[in-house]
Design brief:
246 residues, alpha/beta, 2-enoyl-CoA Hydratase, Chain A, domain 1, 6-stranded mixed sheet, 9 strands, 40% helix, globular
Length: 246
């Protein structure tokens, strides 16, 4: 496999770090998305990584999809995780996952962070979903807004397309921690990741599994896939981790 262009994976001790780095705004196309998939697979399968941090370089975490210009396709014949399977795959990685978000996390870029266990943000970070304003229908991240923000804030975002500040979400518990700068965010996310990486991996897996099962019981898995049916977005490939033998 060639060296990645836009998404790096590194292991810092017991912490796996996935980094988006596509200047100037980390906008994604099929090629970046494919590289991100490969990085998640590497992190999930890395025996040294007990915790995974997803972060990005630059002013904004992700400005959404590349709308014009240099849109690159994923390599032909490569394994593909379908968009809905991507959410499930990341949630089913039985390691704690932390998304570190600075600046804007816009449109489909939100689905990169939604399945992560913890959201750490800079004070000025914001989320935005402007698809309705450009004549589109809700993307695959749309139904997850309700789980993270509640129905009224989800509708406010989807109807108006405006910014939803991370500071506001922090007040309601949808964002875990706020940091004054991107440097502080990076350092804080890694510090916490290293801290919990000292916990017994089996205990971490069981803790994550208990929360995931509870969310499935109250319908998160069901509604996400019912929405996929509504969009006639059939799953392409479902990757599962069988960690029962761990």
């Amino acid at each position: 496999m060639p060296d990645p262009e836009f998404v790096r994976y590194d292991c810092d001790g017991r912490v796996g770090v996935i980094t988006l780095d596509r200047p100037p705004l980390n906008a994604y196309d099929d090629f970046l998305h494919w590289e991100l998939e490969q990085a998640w697979v590497r992190a999930a399968e890395d025996p040294d990584a007990r915790v995974i941090v997803l972060r990005s370089e630059g002013k904004h975490f992700c400005a959404g999809a590349v709308m014009q210009g240099d849109r690159r396709a994923r390599p032909d014949g490569e394994r593909r995780i379908g968009p809905w399977e991507e959410l499930d795959f990341i949630q089913q990685v039985m390691k704690p996952t932390i998304a570190a978000i600075q600046g804007g996390c816009i449109g489909g870029g939100q689905r990169f962070v939604f399945p992560c266990d913890l959201l750490f943000c800079t004070d000025d970070a914001f989320f935005r979903d402007p698809l309705a304003q450009v004549g589109g229908i809700g993307g695959i991240q749309a139904p997850v807004h309700t789980w993270l923000y509640g129905p009224r804030l989800a509708k406010e975002m989807l109807y108006g397309g405006g910014r939803l500040p991370a500071a506001r979400l922090h007040q309601m518990g949808a964002v875990n921690r706020l940091y004054p700068s991107a440097d502080a965010l990076r350092d804080g996310a890694l510090e916490f990741a290293h801290e919990i990486a000292e916990t017994d991996p089996l205990a971490l897996r069981q803790a994550k599994r208990s929360v995931n099962i509870t969310m499935d019981i109250i319908g998160q898995h069901y509604i996400r896939h019912r929405f996929a049916e509504l969009l006639d977005d059939a799953p392409v490939l479902r990757l599962q981790h069988d960690d029962d033998d761990d």
